[in-house]
Specification:
Helix content is 38%, strand content 26%. It is an alpha+beta fold and 822 residues long.
Length: 822
Amino acid sequence: MPAINSHRGALFQHGAGRSDSIVLYRMRRRGKLAVQWRTGRAIVAETLGAVQHDGDVDDVKALPVGTRIGSHEIVAVLAHNDGGITYRARDTQANRDVTLKEYLPTALARRAEGTQVLPRAGRATQDFQRGRDRFLAEAEALTRLQDVADIETVHEVLKGNDTVYAVTAPVPGEALAARLQRDRRLSRLAIDRIVAPLLDGLERAHAAGCLHLDIRPATILIDRTDHPTLIDFAAWRVGLRGVAREAPSAYVPPEMTASAQPGPWTDIYALGATLYHGVTGASPPAAAARLKQDTLEPATRAAMGHYAPALLAFIDAALRLREAERPQSVTDWRRMLLAAPTPPARTNNRAHARTGPSRRRPAQARLWPAVSLLMISLIGGVGYLWYSAEDEAARAAAAAKAAADAAVKQRAQEKATQEAQERARLAAAGWSELQNSTDPAPLRAFAARFTGTPEARLAQQRADALDAAARRRAEEEAARRAAEAAQEKARVVAAAWADVQGSEDPARLRAFAERFAGTPEAQQATARADQIEAAAKRQADEEAKRRAAEAAREKARAATTQWPELQNSEDVARLQQFATDFAGTPEGRLALNRADELKAAQEQARSRSEKAPDRAPETREGPRSFTYPDGSRYVGTLSNGKRNGQGTYTYANGDRYVGAWQNDDMHGQGVYTFADGGRYTGEWRNDKMHGHGVRTWPDGDRYDGAWRAGKKHGSGTYAFNSGDRYVGDWVDDAMQGRGIYTWKDGGRYEGEWRDDKQNGHGVRVFSDGVRYEGEWKDDQAHGQGMRRDPDGDVFTGRWQNGCFMDGDRAVAVGTDLEDCKR
């Protein structure tokens, strides 16, 4: 389908850009059409050949529902006649329902395959194009009358499919023809409501150079408030054979059937005939019949007593057969409503008989004296005439008074008529000077001065339209300035954000957010400030924990270092002081337990020496020293022949345990020193490290945390001899769960672990400033994630085995491409 473009423009241009009114009329000879473009007094005429087409017109098909004409989508077909097709459509751009009128005269064109319109063969091509130009010109002229509420609104004119479309507003209501068929005639109120708007709309159309040429009850729609709308302007049809709409002859003036030129008087006749039907209940006789014998009963007689005499005289003036005797413009016709009605004189246009003063025949003149003498003699024979001079004087006085009153009333009526005519003249003269004013103030002053006149109404409408246009311009200007201000603010915000977005200073970020509150950048600044402050708090908390842990580790190291020298001491006071200095450490607890045991043993020994005989050494329970066959040696408490309580066990391989025992198992708090220099200080259960404990290795590695069944399990801190450090969860000697790993070079990972590797979601900050947040698998970025480089580059998306994926293609970001390919 070819592109559909909205079309605006002048009608036909002659000279310096002047719009010309189009006048169409039929010539008698040879059935041809004369088209005149009037510019001032100059008339350019062109004769169009008559068109005949007797072929099949079934090939003129409507466009399918859903077809788009520009921004208009066809919803339904409303009508299909010899002049074209009317559709109901939806303007998707303006979001409104419209009526779409397609120029497609069946006698001149057909629908090709698809949507194109093709002229028929022969002379139809040229006639189709001429008719299309006239349809276009008329529709364009009507687009300039969108502010007129009394005629059909034409929104725009579209070109496409090699034809033209008029986009009009749907008009609610019923046709006046339907109203008259139902009610026969119109009420006084209905007449009062429709006459003025019809005159206003027709006057504006004529001023724009548009003649209707098809006014009748069927082309006037009446809404619920009796407001009329004039539809279906048809000047473009006149004279096109096979296209011209044949209106009922009752509404067609004589010049439309002859070679006379149509004009505003033509529409005045048609509207007068329509109003005649409205007040009498019947249409007037056809003009052709009236030219032979005028049988029209004037409205002033046919509707006398039902409507205002001025209105009836107004209608009769429009129905005069000779166009020169009709009002020549709507303005002239309207003024008649202000004047007193005068009985119309019937005109016989077929023949004009000569008439003169009537004369009495001679015989009648001679008989008159004889008749008079006879009457006198008869009166004298009956009696005599009583004559009263007094009565005659009274009758004369009454007659004189009545004549004087009639003269006063007549002068008052004449004065009122003259004043009304003068006021109408002044209004018309003032309006002709003011009608193009662009200042609402003088228009409103004019409307107030000439209230009730048609010109006052036009002035008020124009002032309202100018005020509305000024408001629209002010609103558009305000919107433009607001948009510019918003753009300027966005530019300033963007520039300021570019300067501050990389800042690590929360105060600066919050100052930005306060200054540009309500913007997306302000929200980002607030979020970044919150993140920085939260990170700073986390860092401070971690530092405090680290220092506390370091102090605890230092305390533990001191306790571990000093305890071997004291663990075999028998000095209760030194042991108690050691327990106080290293409270909370396993060694401190061991010292306190040993001090308590020594003190208890001393008390028992003293008691036994004082109160009971000595027992055999081998049968006593309590602190003892025992050497095993493999060379191991135990010094401590025995119970039931087993190591129970506090004791020191030195293994044959050099390992040594000092702490609590239960049924020969290390159980409770204790210190295990390995022969290779390693050491464990903490809780034991069933001969295994279990609970909280600190384990050091000969190479310098150190673990401080939870144990289970001899394995690191739970929360703990592992300090590597390389300087790396892990703080987090453990499962069966492996880093697993949530944890933070800090490298010696400053790198840091915080997130999820599994099997001693970064697995799951986590954030890794490298020592060079690169930051990656997202999914991990076996210590490599894998899954959805975002990498931010120090230079500002950001890579967000899917990662696989440490490589950024662009679709299915691996991209080397921070790694060698060969590694990605592998």
